[in-house]
Amino acid sequence: MTSFLVEAYTPASAALAEIEAEARLAAAELSEAGTPVRYLRSIFVPADELCLHQLEGPSSTAVGEALRRAGIAPQRIVEALT
Amino acid sequence: MQGPRQAEGAQAIAIPGGQAADVVGREAELAALEAFVDAREELPRALVLEGEAGLGKTTLLRAGVEAARGRSYRVLGCAPGEAESELSFAALRDLLEGAFDGIAADLPAPQRRALAVALLRQEPGADALDPGAVATGFLAALRLLAAGSPVLVAVDDAQWLDPPSASVLAYAARRLRNEPVALLLSWRTEGAGALPLALDRALPDDRLQRLRPEPLTLGALYALLSTRLDHSFPRPVLVRVHDASGGNPLFALEIGRALQRRGALPPAGERLPIPERLHDLVNDRLATLPTDTRLALGVAAALSHPTLPLVSAATGLDAGVLDAAVRAHVLELDGERIRFTHPLLSSAAYAALEPGRRRAVHRRLAELLDDPEERARHLAPAAAGPDESVATALEEAARDALTRGAPEAAASLAEQALGLTPAGQSAEHARRTADAGDYHLRAGDTGRARVLLEQAVSELPRGEARARALHRLATVRYREESYAAVEQVLERALAEAEDPTLRAAIESDLVTSLLQSGELRRAAPHARAALELAERHGERALLALALSTAAMVEFLLGNGIRGELMERALALAGAERGADLLPALAEPAVFWAVMLKWADDFEAAHPRLEAIARRVREHDEEGSLPSVLFQLAELECWLGNLESAERYARECREAALLSGQPSLETHPLYVEALVAAHVGRVEDAVAAASRALVIAERVADQRFVVRCLAVLGFTKLSLGDAAEADRQLGRAAELTSAAGYGEPGVVRFLPDAIEALVLLERLEQAETLTERLEERGATLERPWAQATGARCRALLAAARGDLPGALGALERARAAHERLPMPLERARTLLVLGRVQRRAKQKRAARASLAEALELFDGLGARLWAEQARSELARIGGRRPASDELTPTERRLAELVADGRSNKEAAAALFVTPRTVETQLSRIYRKLGVRSRTELANRLAGEAEAGKL
Q: Rg of the Cα trace of chain B?
């Protein structure tokens, strides 16, 4: 499993808790369907209208798919080490 | 060859709707736009998207248009470009493209014709089309369209509206009242500047919204770049792009494209490819396109409505060369129609043509286009320098634009003709200078008109042409409200004019100007000359005017109503007149109504004035409305209908504001002062009249100077301040007597002036004025002059101790009042009658007269006059006043006594006998429930503390 950082435009008015819940749910759904994706955490920067999500998965495509299911449009997905 | 413009626009530009979902990072702005179109119950309203280039105003405007369409608004849209910003009515044509046919049949014929000519659907006639008719036509069209569903008028890049269209839109915006019309405009501006279409004057603050899109946040920019460029940049690069672009989306996209073109991303620390100016970025982007494509783009940019066939014909290239530009998102195609994705790209494409090539392009386009104005617009830049044939073409195009009702366009074409006139062609240069000045004047730009006309006057040789220019110059001065200079210029024009029609027009304007500055006697010979010339040579409108002004001058001089002149003038009515000195109000019907009013025939004057006001309102001529409404308000005041007077005064104020002519403020101020003076609101009356006086004096409008002095004097007289009243009214009397007014109906302050003089015991002066008033009243059979003249005669007789003489005069006054529906004047006569009767010891009669006067004063709400009547009644004694409140006389006595005066001292102070003081004092005791002087003093002191005094 590789760790990925995903950057996504998020309006300043968005609620972080909802985003997290959606992302977690979408990752679980995808995993159940056979692609193991794990949602780890998000960092929301309202001033920049930017949210950084950290997920684990087999590929950037799989992670992107999970977020899109959660209604999040990723701008950029890169490998990240923590 | 290009067909007529309307065929070209058949696909309607309208504004393409933009899906809000495609818009990134604009949640707040989109919410504001949704709220704007949702407020269907609160129309008319306007929203202006403003800010610098590239901020995304167009994107938001398109989203707003889409939102409006979703709420079943009818959308009239236009997106003018720089190339058409000089083409008259280009924007109006786009706005009404799909809508005109549906409503044309419902428009009144003159408005339909004016619009059809402006929209190039009909050939203009021989005469200049009245720009006002196009504007009223557009407003009427808007109202018709809005009757079905709400209308959204959307204008993208309003800074490039051609001036004739902008005037029409501004005109309509100012006149929207309850129509369901929304205006959505985008407007390129740096900093907080003025608003387009003078919207801040047209709409109340709560109906006008300015929306300045914020710079995009980092996240939003990120999303924009990745969707539009299909490329994702590393965050550090993105942060630098964000910083460099300041969040401006267009700027950021151009930087992003430049980065993409370089292929490799810049290593950290290396400078981004960010040129100093956005234009350079845009140029870089164009530079990547093939040469032929760039040439075709330049041609498209030079055209007001570029189409593929036209660009192809002009370049000799296949239209396919533009495909590369479409792929590069420089252009969008809408059928055969070409649109640049951003105006900056159009400007850059045009600027990229080298000068020789640019001239060749314009020359070629001038050959291809049919419309004379558009052709001329291309001929000018096609010329390498001054060129008489091009100047001639431009001169003709200017005349053509004028006949289409676009004086703004005519002015700009004439200026171009002027600029291209070869040196040495001095006659042409002078003629074109004068023409350009004339067109600017018609377009309402008096400043530029003055410069050009003054120059023309200095260039032209003595003679007819210079006389015309001088006549125009006089109109400029008149509009600029420097009346003093008008006369001089008109006299010069007259000395050089030979054409009898021109002479008649100059003479007529001279009369207007002289009347305004109070030179009635000097106006008379000019009025006669104007009439004589117009009789022999003038057109109908000029003759009607000459007849009316001649009749007016005779009337003002005191020669009565010249029915034969007015009948002829009225029969000629309905003719139109061009951009001359006089406002639209110079109609015989107006002269007639005003004369009837001044001649005391209120019954005939009132409905006529109301009909004129209705007509002026319907034609939305704010410039004329204040003059009519002030006449009506004044008449209502005379008739004692103060509420109605106040209503007209309010409407007068509104119309004066809308007209934008500062000097017209005298009209509402004067009638406001008049109403306030009648109901005894002294401070309001004095403030308004004083302010109006300052304005009237500044612009040398003697008629209003006199009116203001009259109100001020009347107010002071109501307060019993004879000295101050005389100061104002004496000056008014001097001015009107010097002017030579012989009609009593225009000097209605005269009885007040006389009353003040009598109070000041300047009886000889009062006598002279009274004789004049009586004589005028008798000769001209004017009930008002007869009634007030007799009242003044009574005042004089009473002042000389001749009480029987006074009573006789007052009987004559009462008889005249029977024919005069002016309740205040009647009550004032009764007040004088009561006073004289009291002095003649006819107590019962005095009480009856004063009670009647009091009732009339109270009914009018004339507080100060009612107080005078009450106080007189109290002096007679006997019957108690209705209430337990002290009358003013009682109050004064009570104060004197409480102040420690003896009955004898108090009697001396009040000019009554000590016995009267005793009687009054016992009544005061009874009213106040006190039994001694000490109790009275305590009681008054207590009231004073309680704020009752």
A: 36
Top-ranked range on mean pLDDT: pick from B38-52, B84-98, B780-794? B780-794
CB neighbours of residue B759 within 10 Å: 18
| B283 touching chain A per CB within 8 A | no
Question: In angstroms, rounded to a whole number, what is the distance separating the alpha carbons of residues A73 and B876?
Answer: 96
For residue B352, what are the contacts with CB-CB under 8 A and spacing of at least 6?
B283, B286, B294, B297, B298
- Are B181 and B151 a contacting pair, CB within 8 Å? yes
- Is any Cβ of chain B less than 8 angstroms from the Cβ of A49? yes
B226/A75 touch (CB, cutoff 8 Å), yes or no: yes
User: Hey, is the C-beta of A15 within 8 angstroms of any chain B C-beta?
Assistant: no
Please report residues of A whose CB lies closer than 8 A to that of B232. Answer: 75-76
Q: Model pTM?
A: 0.67
B222 vs A contacts (CB less than 8 Å): 7, 9, 50, 75-76
What φ, ψ does residue B743 adopt, rounded to 5°? -95, 120
Q: With contacts defined as CB-CB under 8 Å, which chain B residues touch A11?
A: 25, 27
Q: Phi/psi class of residue A34: alpha, beta or left (left: φ > 0; alpha: ψ in -120 to 50)? A: left
N- to C-terminal Cα distance for chain A? 13
Residues 6+ apart with CB under 8 A from B627: B583, B585, B664, B667
- Check residue B100 and give left, alpha or beta (phi > 0: left; psi -120 to 50: alpha): alpha
B654 has a pLDDT exceeding 60: yes
DSSP-derived 3-state class of residue B274: coil
> What are the angstrom distances between the C-alpha of B70 and each of A66, B34, B64, B671, B783?
33, 10, 10, 49, 67
Angstrom distance (rounded) from CA B859 to CA B855? 6
Nearest residue in chain A measured CA to CA from B230 = A75
pLDDT in tens, B122-162: 887 766 667 678 888 899 999 999 998 999 999 999 988 98
Beta pairing class for B151-155 and B74-78: parallel
Pairing of strands B181-188, B151-155: parallel
Over B332-371, what HEC string results? EEECCEEEECCHHHHHHHHHCCCHHHHHHHHHHHHHHCCC
Q: Give exposure, B164-200, as e/b (b: 16+ Cβ within 10 Å).
A: bbbbbbbbbbbbbeebbbbbbbbbbbeeeeebbbbbe
> Which residue bears the tokens 């002030």?
B630
Cβ contact A7–B24 (<8 Å): no
Q: How far is CA B679 from the centre of its chain?
A: 29
Q: What is the pLDDT of residues B703-714, one digit of tens each?
A: 999 999 999 999
Cα–Cα distances (Å) from B453 to B439, B440, B470, in that order, read 10, 10, 7
Q: State whether ipTM is beyond 0.85.
A: no
Residues facing A79 on adjacent strands: A4
Contacts of B226 in chain A (CB under 8 A): 75-76
- Tell how many helices (H) and how many strands (E) occur in chain B: 48, 7
Give the pLDDT confidence of B892-949 residue by residue, as tens digits: 888 888 888 888 888 877 767 777 788 778 878 877 778 788 888 888 887 766 654 4
Where in B471-607 does DSSP place strands (E)? none
Q: Are B548 and B569 a contacting pair, CB within 8 Å?
A: yes
